[in-house]
Amino acid sequence: MSRRKKKGEDINTNGWMDTYADTITLLLTFFILLYSISVVDSQKLNKLAEAMKKSLQGSTKITELENIENLKVGEGKSDYENLAEKLNTVIEQNALTDVVKIREEERGVVLQLDETILFDSGEAVLKDYSRNILNTITTVIKNIDNDVLIEGNTDNIPINNEYFKSNWELSTARTVSIVRYFVETKEINPTRFSVKGYAEYKPLVENNTEENRSINRRVDILIVEQKEK
């Protein structure tokens, strides 16, 4: 004769702990997400809250969450993200996207200017047309306090004439022409500028085709990211 089970033997008194642990985990995840978002779009935040609500109610349906970066609005972007967007807008409005590119680096925001809009081949005298482009860049530089580094780059084809004995001289002379325009013509504080000539030694791509060499023949105007003291 089987032994009669005592009352309560089949009841798991710790079963509630699983549900409680899941709820705490979900709440913790929710607050971590909130903490990660400095300024959020209210509509997208509502979507996030709705997804968490369904999870807490036991729904097994997975709600797709948008990339956390997309939850941020313009006010939450860094100064350099906003500056890069502003520069891209100016370039597009002036139909310069083929000759001026924007790069974001750890050092700051770089305006990459094609050689063809600034100088004739093998020369360091600014073209008249280039002054209109530099005037547009001037309006941006005057509205910020950051230092500006102007970097000259060439391809790997040697140069040796009465003006420039090597690409070192050519790349440096071109940066000096640009900084003099900013300082002497546009009257920007000269203490904000510095120049570097890299010759062919800092290419963006290999110098193995004419197309690649044309990419490497450029002047980079770096708006230096200000570091906290």
TrEMBL record:
Intracellular or extracellular location(s): Cell membrane
GO CC terms of this entry: plasma membrane
Residue ranges of domain OmpA-like in the record: 106-227
InterPro entries assigned to the protein according to its UniProt record, in alphabetical order: Bact_OuterMem_StrucFunc (IPR050330), MotB-like_N_dom (IPR025713), OmpA-like (IPR006665), OmpA-like_sf (IPR036737)
Segments forming a coiled coil: none
Pfam families reported for this sequence: MotB_plug (PF13677), OmpA (PF00691)
Membrane-topology descriptor: Single-pass membrane protein
Keywords for the protein's UniProt record, in alphabetical order: Cell membrane, Membrane, Transmembrane, Transmembrane helix
Entry's family note: Belongs to the MotB family.
PANTHER family, per the entry: LIPOPROTEIN YIAD-RELATED, STATOR ELEMENT OF FLAGELLAR MOTOR COMPLEX
Name of protein: Chemotaxis protein MotB
Species for this entry: Asaccharospora irregularis DSM 2635
